[in-house]
Design goal:
alpha/beta; globular; two-stranded antiparallel sheet; binds flavin-adenine dinucleotide; TIM Barrel; 8-stranded parallel β-barrel
Length: about 450
Amino acid sequence: MAERSATAAPRADPEAELLRVGRALHEALPRPSRNPIEAVDRRAMELAAQDDRLRAALFRLVDVTPACRSLDDLAAHLASYLGEVERRPPPLETALRLSGSRAGRAALGAAAAAAVRHMAHRFIVGETPRGAMPTLRSLWVAGAAASVDLLGEATVTEAEADRYAERCADALDTLVEQSGRWPSRPVLERDSLGSLPRANLSVKVSALTPLLRPDAPELGRADAARRLRPLLRRARDAGAHVHIDMEAVDSLEATLSLVLELLDEEEFAEGPSAGLVLQAYLRESPRRLDQILEWAASSRRRPPLVVRLVKGAYWDHEVVEARQHGWPSPVFEVKAESDRNFEDLTRRLLDARPLLRVAIASHNLRSLSHAIAWNRVAGGRDEDLELQVLRGLGDHLMRALAAHGMRVRVYCPVGDLVAGMAYLVRRLLENTSNESFLYEQARGVPLEELLAPPG
Ligand SMILES: Cc1cc2nc3c(=O)[nH]c(=O)nc-3n(C[C@H](O)[C@H](O)[C@H](O)COP(=O)(O)OP(=O)(O)OC[C@H]3O[C@@H](n4cnc5c(N)ncnc54)[C@H](O)[C@@H]3O)c2cc1C
C-alpha cells in the first residue's frame, strides 16, 4: 500500500533527488539518431520553429494533404504556401523551382506526400486496433503499457457519434482478447492497490456527442452519457480501463460532471477502472483538483479513479479564443507558470493516494523527474506512480523510464491519416514551439538548465 505521504516526513532534499533522477534518465536516453529520415524530420522541425511563416506553411501542407486529388495538386499547394515564406532555406528554394515543371511537380508531390505520411506514422500506431496490435505487443514486451486513442475528434452528427462508440466497443474487445496472450510484465500489471488492466482505451467526449456546447452543458452530457455508459459496462465486464481525455476548456464542465456522475452510478461501484485528465495550464486547475478530491473522498466506488496530469494541448486555441472574445485567458500565459502549477498539482496528487491513482504525462525531463523524486522522498513506492508519454514524441523517454524499472504507458493514436490531421497538427504545434521542452532539448540546452526549477 502506498504510504500517505501527506503525513510522511520527507527523507531527503527533493531537488537533490530530482537532479539525481534527471541525470540518470538522461544517461539512458539515446544519442541523436543517425537515421537520415529522422535527421531530416528534426531539421524540418528546427527550421519551422525559427520561422513563423515556414511553420504556417508546414501546418497548411499537413492539413491539405488528405484532400489533394493528385501529386500535382499537392505540389501546387506546397508551392503556393512556400511562396509566402520570405527567407527560404536552400532545400525549399529548390522545391519551389521544381514546381515550375510538370515532372518536377510530380517529384515534389511524391516527396511531400511521403514526408507527411512519414510524420503521421511517427505518431499513429495503426489504421485499426487490430492493425496496431503488433506495435502494442512489442511496446509491452519492451516494458511499456499503452492507452489506445481512436482518432476522429469533434463529431458533428449523431450517426458519427454512434459510429465512434461502436469503434470504441470493438477496440475494447480486440484489446482485451489480444492482450490476454501477452507475456507477464509485473511492473505494468500491478501497483500496491491491486491489479491494473492490460487493455486501456482513451476516449474523447467530443466524439461521443455532437451536442457538446458550453452554453448547454447538460444537453451534451446526457447525449454522451448514453454512449459512454455501455462502454463502461463493457470495460467492467471485460476487465479493461477507460480513460476520458480532456479537451478545450469550453467542454471541461460537461466532461468532468459526466465522468464523476456516471462513475457514481450503482452499477459501476465495483468497476471498471476509469480515469480522467487534469490540465495544469488552466488557471482553475487547482480548484478542479479540489472538486475531484472531494468526489473521491465521498464516492463509494471501489477502484480508485486514475488522474492523468498533463499541461494541456490546446494552449494556442485557448489564447486565440479568449483574445477574440475579449475574455480573460483561462490558461497561464507564461510557460513557467504552467510548469510550476504542474509540479504543485503533482505533489498534491501524490499526497492524495490511495484515494486516487496518479499518472504523470509529460515529455519534460524536469516534470517527470520531479514526480519520481517527490514520490521517493515522500516515502512512496515507484510502483505507485505511472509515467505517460505520447507515441512519437516520448519514445526515447519511454525506453529510459522502462530501463529504470518505472511503469510507463504510451498514448497510442489509431486511425487513418485524414482522421489524424487535427491530432497531427497539435503535435506539430508542440514540436515546433520554441518554448517546448523537447525543442530546448533538441537545440542542446545544457542538462543543468533543463533540470532547473521553472523560473
Ligand atoms: C500520455 C499523454 C496524454 C495526454 N492527454 C492529454 C489530454 O487528454 N488533454 C490535453 O489537453 N493534453 C493531453 N496531453 C498533451 C499535454 O497536455 C501536453 O500538450 C504535452 O504533453 C506537452 O507538454 P510537456 O510537459 O510534454 O512539454 P513542455 O514543453 O514542458 O510543455 C509544453 C506545454 O506547456 C504549456 N505552454 C506552452 N507555452 C506556454 C505559455 N506561453 N504559457 C503557459 N503555458 C504554456 C502548454 O500546455 C504546452 O503544451 C497528453 C500528453 C501525454 C504525454
